[in-house]
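Morning run. Coffee first, then this:
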Amino acid sequence: MKSMKIEILIITSLLLLSGCTGKFKKEIALKDEKIGILEDQLAFAQGSTQSLLKQMEDLSIISKSGAESIGKSLDNISQQNNYIQNLTSKIQTKDSINLALVMNLKRSLADVNDEDIDVEVRGGVVYVSISDRLLFRSGSIRINSAAQSVIGKIATVINDHNNLQVMVEGHTDDVPMNTECIEDNWDLSVKRATAVVRSLTMDHYVSPERLTAAGRSEFIPKSDNETSRGRSLNRRPEIIIQPSLEEFFQLMEGPQLVN
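And here it is:
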């Protein structure tokens, strides 16, 4: 009887154990399923994080490149602004010099007949036009002795502005010219310009390296050639006073911009 009770207890225990094992297996299976879901979620999160990090890296590169481009643009703008300010300052300085130059020339030449001499600014350059009748006899390349005082007054003003360059241009009317000494109007215009340059250097001490002699013949008339007055106006030497060409070219070079 006792042994039967023991067997019944053993069987009952086994049945209970078997039921608990099944329950545990179900719980384990549920846990495994949750773990799988969590692992999938973790893998997705890790993938999203890597993608976000890559986007942030790309954004960082773009931002750096954009910042460098903006920096270069700002440097260019700054250089251009400095160049414009410098150019404006130089132009204002040149205009002030031209104004002073014109005033000094007109004051010095106040006693000369207005029909014989004209002082004006054209294209930022000072022109002094002198009638040929004041300087030369008809067809001659020799300066009248009476005209030396006029050239002397101009030379004094030129010497007071020793940073300026001077070009003397000879002009003629369209009447053909041919003599033993003068081949044509080109020849006449150049030789008259040379005569004025020679007087400026030898008689009035203007430095020769500041001077240029040029002939324009009949091709840049100041008036028509239909009247004697018009032809007279066209036959004129012009003394052109201008800034140093080297300084001018340096001014026009502008800033070296950042690429």
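The beta strands are 117-122, 125-130, 164-170, 211-215, 237-243. Good start to the day.
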